[in-house]
Write a structure and sequence with these properties.
- The chain folds into two domains: 2-204 and 411-426, Aminopeptidase, CATH 3.40.630; 210-409, Aminopeptidase (3-Layer(aba) Sandwich), CATH 3.40.630.30.
- Helices cover 37% and strands 26% of the residues.
- It has helices at residues 2-7, 40-53, 65-69, 113-119, 135-151, 190-197, 217-237, 249-263, 275-288, 313-317, 328-338, 361-376, 392-400, 418-426; strands spanning 25-27, 30-35, 90-99, 102-112, 123-131, 156-159, 161-162, 168-169, 171-172, 201-212, 239-243, 294-299, 302-311, 344-352, 381-388, 404-415.
- The strands form two sheets. Strands 1, 2, 3, 4, 5, 6, 9, 10, 11, 12, 13, 14, 15 and 16 form a 14-stranded mixed β-sheet that branches.
- Helix 5 packs across helix 14, helix 7 packs across helix 12 and helix 8 (249-263) crosses helix 9.
- The longest helix is centred in the middle third of the chain and has 21 residues, at 217-237.
- 44% of the residues are buried.
């Protein structure tokens, strides 16, 4: 029980006490400690740091600790730990920056074989970046990732991704006065400046669109026009749409995975998920999803598209300025209590196999989903996120429903040179 309890609490930052095998290195005026995915003590400090950093930021919502650290109590593999199947195809290292014995920054370094294979790149990814407003600390952290990647033969630094595009990505650039939807990044405005000061350039922007569902004439007009178009497509292309079946959840998750990996295979930065990784997604989905708003589309017998609209569980587990905020068990109880009450929904997945994107399947799927959502009456606002800024097809579709672009996240990159690895060896 002790281990389960540890996975459901946040450990406060404490003075640095490096393990015997880890010598803290002086960098600027901060000590940098590197550690791996089996060091539970330092991983807890890694996870605890944002709680203190964002203590006075009302819109920040910490993820569940067990999503990062795991939990024996819930049988859950934490993304940061060696037990998570992501680590079967990736090498990671974590870095904590200390000043006067207190954590002032963190970052993860990752070489993901599947990301580099699927994108034909040699990237070292930096992620889970959090830092005080101090350029020196940020530069030391980012440089350590660059050095770590260069020693492994990588040619480009890319991020932030925690750890790839299947997870939380980007530095938020605007809409800082809004509460983030689940699994989207929220940070201070100064983060973009820190990225610039680290010598990083824009690689890609991803955006969120917001759709008001109440008292919006343009939304209703767009919905009615789409319904008229989709009836023609339904008959012409023999399209059928059905919701997830909870009694056959595993079978439907396999269909979901097939569509997901194929539909995103040509997207910028996309990385296919393994069966084991998707199994974890399935467990999380089962805990929060309404099966009526996860829809599969078929043409004949072939599954061709999927759309998933989920309640914003961040709205359910957000902090309430209570001592109990730090305990996963309490936050999970809040999740189950409020998941059918939150007025916020997120369109998390809208994926269509490449050859079916121009024959009405998209509109059929969207109108069916919107009809079900309106009938339930729970959501007042929905977010479509995240979307590549180059995804004109989906962005234009959102505009038909009066969706407005209101938030942007940026991914950054820079080339690596042998000098980065040489600097690491010298240190």
């Amino acid at each position: 029980m002790a281990e389960a309890r540890l996975s459901c609490e946040v450990e406060e930052s404490c003075p640095v006490q490096a393990a015997d095998s880890m010598e803290p290195r002086e960098a600027e005026d901060a000590q940098i400690v590197e550690f791996g995915n089996t060091d539970r003590k330092l991983l807890r400090q890694f996870v605890a740091f944002p709680w203190r950093l964002y203590a006075d930021e009302p819109n920040y919502v910490p993820p569940l600790n067990m999503d990062l650290l795991g939990s024996r109590l819930f049988g859950h593999a934490g993304l940061l730990t060696a037990s998570h199947p992501f680590h079967d195809h990736a090498e990671v290292a974590y870095f904590l920056a200390y000043r006067d014995g207190e954590v002032v920054g963190r970052v993860a370094a990752c070489v993901d074989e599947h990301h580099n294979r699927d994108n034909n790149t040699e990237d070292v990814i930096f992620g889970f970046f959090e830092c005080i407003d101090d350029s020196a600390v940020a530069q030391v952290l980012v440089n350590r990732v660059a050095q770590w990647g260069s020693r492994r033969g990588m040619k480009r630094l890319l991020g932030p991704m925690s750890f790839n595009t299947n997870h939380t990505i980007g530095v938020q650039l605007d809409a800082f006065d809004t509460q983030p939807y689940f699994e989207t990044a929220h940070n201070f405005p100064y983060y973009a400046r820190l990225m610039d000061e680290c010598g990083l350039d824009k690689a890609m922007d991803v955006i969120a669109q917001r759709v008001p569902l109440e008292c919006d004439g343009r939304f209703w007009a767009g919905y009615e026009r789409a319904k008229e178009r989709t009836e023609v497509a339904r008959q012409k292309y023999d399209v059928t749409i059905r919701p997830f079946r909870m009694r056959q959840f595993e079978a439907d998750m396999e269909v979901f995975r097939e569509i997901y990996n194929e539909a995103w295979s040509q997207n910028w930065g996309a990385t296919a998920m393994t069966d084991e990784e998707f199994s974890i997604v399935g467990k999380q989905l089962k805990a929060v999803a309404d099966p009526d708003t996860i829809l599969l589309a078929y043409m004949g017998d072939e599954p061709v598209a999927v759309m998933a609209v989920l309640p914003d569980y961040f709205d359910c587990i957000k902090r309430k300025n209570s001592f109990w905020d730090r305990f996963d068990l309490v936050r999970i109880m809040r999740l189950f209590r409020y998941r059918n009450k939150t007025p916020r929904g997120r369109v998390m997945v809208l994926g269509i196999k490449e050859k079916y994107r121009r024959n009405g399947v998209k509109d059929l799927l969207i109108t069916e989903s919107v009809g079900r959502i309106l009938a339930k009456g729970q959501f007042k606002t929905m977010e479509l996120s995240w979307l590549l800024e180059t995804n004109e097809l989906i962005i234009k579709t959102g505009k038909l429903y009066n969706a407005e672009r209101y938030k942007t996240w940026r991914l950054y990159h820079k080339p690596l040179t042998p000098a980065h690895g040489a600097a690491a060896d010298a240190s």
